[in-house]
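BUG: 3D viewer hangs when loading the predicted structure for this chain

Environment: internal workstation, default settings.
Expected: structure renders.
Actual: progress bar stalls at 90%.

Input used:
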Amino acid sequence: CGDGKTDQAIKSLSGVLTNSAAAGSDLARAYYYRGLAYAKASKPAQAIADLNNALWLKGLAPDERANAHLQRGKAYKATGLEARAAQDFREAEKLAPGAASEELAMAEAPAEVLLRRQSSFEHASGGRGTRGGPGDDWGDGTRACAIDSADDSQE
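Structure tokens produced before the viewer hung:
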């Protein structure tokens, strides 16, 4: 997951956070940089925790705050918390327009994809509603047989 430099950064910053009397912006930046290192090491839960602390302490520069929201959003997305990710992407966009526009577009895209699939299913089923025929699919090659299987298991 993490490379040697990332692991060393996490270890060094953990030492600073544990053994230091750092306060204010120094403490916020230590959490911020360790959160970035955890994110790079594919440890999203730890990244979220540290970025939460960094944002809560309010010692980051505006560009760091925007990046903290962006990176925390990516970590939330990695853990499957899409709504929380979208909130952070919106906040990053508000703080630094353009900083999270791609991530925000991707976070909002699944609803459109689901609506397209539903429309495609309704069209393929001839408007029959819940159960299509054996040739029906979701419009992207995904078969609609899950509905058939669920119905068959109840018989």
